Amino acid sequence: xxxxxxxxxxxxxxKDKWKAKSWYTILANESYGKKEIGSSPASSPEDMVGRIAxxxxxxxxxxxxxxxVKLFFRVIKTEGxxxxxxxxxxxxxxxxxxxxxxxxxxxxxxxxxxxxSDNVYLRIKPIVVVDRKVINNVETGIRNKVAExxxxxxxxxxxxxxxxxxxxxxxxxxLYEQIKVIYPAKKIEIRSSEVFEPTKQIGREQKVEAEPVExxxxxxxxxxx
Length: 225
Prior knowledge:
Elements: H1 2-19, E1 22-27, E2 36-42, H2 45-48, E3 52-56, H3 57-61, E4 69-79, E5 82-92, H4 94-100, E6 106-115, E7 121-130, H5 136-155, H6 159-166, H7 170-179, E8 187-195, E9 208-210
Parallel strand pairs: 1-5
Antiparallel strand pairs: 1-2, 3-4, 4-5, 5-8, 6-7, 6-9, 7-8
């Protein structure tokens, strides 16, 4: 009997705890029309600030072809029962990336750390796929071209402007034009991005690093097809 009473008290406490929470509607940032992307309970408005919400790009744009792109938004403030966000980053579904890679192709990954014209630090991770295996000099040339183009583009745009550009088809057309003078690309994607805080070694934000490829490593070996 005592156990049943204890269970009822515990269940009531859980119910009361949820009753004390308020539900907040989470909105995308202004770039995406402050569209509703979800809802979340919180004990206070302050508890909502800093939370990360996820949404498919297709849910926002209505274009199902963009369903492989996942966006991340960080809550920065609340007004009433609405939570406002800013863009925090994005990533592409891993299954989509695997479908890009086929036999006898070269996958080229790189990381570009740079800063927008309004001083927002971005880490961008492009992936380039070319139709055949290529020598090291070609890979290096493609990496350099992509890095130079992205750093120049980021520097001349505000954070909001670049995010819209980065998630549009125009960036892929522009990158293709840059790369084709070295070697035509089969596929180009910005596989992920994120806002980051610069380190004390401020000069490192411009460094371009080759990222190790964990999948289908044998297809990235240097060689001539």
